[in-house]
Request: fold
Amino acid sequence: MARTPFLHPFAKPANEHWITIVRGEGAHVWDDDGNRYIDGMASLWYCQIGHGRPEVAEAVARQMRAIEAYHTFDIFTNEAAERFCELVVGLAPIDGRVFLTCSGSEAVDTAIKLARLHFHLQGQSHRNLIVGRNLAYHGTAYGGMSAQGLPLNQEGYGPLLDGMVRVPHDDLTEAETLFAEHGERIAAVLAEPVIGAGGVYPPEPGYLAELRRLCDGVGALLILDEVICGFGRLGSWFGAERYDVEPDLLTFAKGATSGYLPVGGVLVGRRTLEVLEADPGYLLRTGFTYSGHPTACAAGVANIEILQGEDLPGRAAPMGRRLRAGFDELLAEELVAEVRGDGAVFGVGMLDGVDAVAVRDAMLRRGVIARPIGATTIAWCPPLVTSDTDLDTCVEVFGEALREVRTGS
Ligand SMILES: Cc1ncc(COP(=O)(O)O)c(C=O)c1O
Reply:
């Protein structure tokens, strides 16, 4: 295939080779040549319930037949959005309300805005610093892009947002100094429970609790970005429970609908709600045309019902144990350098000189999809419905691909 009118995200604009995915069922997808792949990445870290679930298609069709969409600005609402938010609040690690968006990037940017607003409305506009972490990924809108810790994603896009500070992802010394010197100016810390797109780095023991303690010490907010971790990926509904830390704001997307339709959101905790709700005349001036889109929310409701009905968050830990055992064998065989992960999400570090993209390509030829992160890591994040047989095939094919790339055969 040649270049097409579609300019792809996170792709080489000059690329002329595409894999056209035409169908999906469970943990499998098919291309237009009839090749079947095991989807070792749940598409892009999102398809918890597996592909092609008729329950979601039917819920979406039902909603479309009633009314496809109606906006939710000001006084309008719809049953699907209300039900979806009710379900999310019921599962959430903190009491609160849900602000709906259409993506993780919008959720993160909204959370940053709400954190700053939280202090502005209390006469503390000077309190606007957002503390991010190295290697963090928070999407591609200007807020999340400015807060993240992957410099290549910031290159060329002009001045970033003011008031963003970064600290190491695995060491708190710099954060402690920052809080000691500028604590009164910090609005919020923004952290993924497990760093995902930056390479899959679970938190060091006690790290997130310590961030919470630092925030509490100066009255700052803690925002957990659970766009990947949320909705069962780590074995609990949210990473907050997994690591026993309570955020003030929590962002989600991806697994919230398993990607059947795009929905993201910010769970807004009581502390911020009290500020927002204090003046009955106050108008919150932010939101997206499709915030609370009923058809997208109907997909979210059906997705959560499947996650609950089949206890799919409960599948993450056993899946992860099986994958880790396999990856550890590759480590013992000295085919990989490092295995990182938690729940059912992993980053496997390549040995020096082994290109993760070549490994990905060698796996594709054998019918398994995983995702290279730069040249140094292969990420795994399979749907929570993946069978043991398919998980074993993923590991087996990974080993074959690593051997092929190492020997150049
Ligand atoms: C932790 C995190 N935050 C934010 C985002 C951005 O989400 P989206 O691509 O839906 O805008 C992502 C996407 O991978 C993510 O992993």
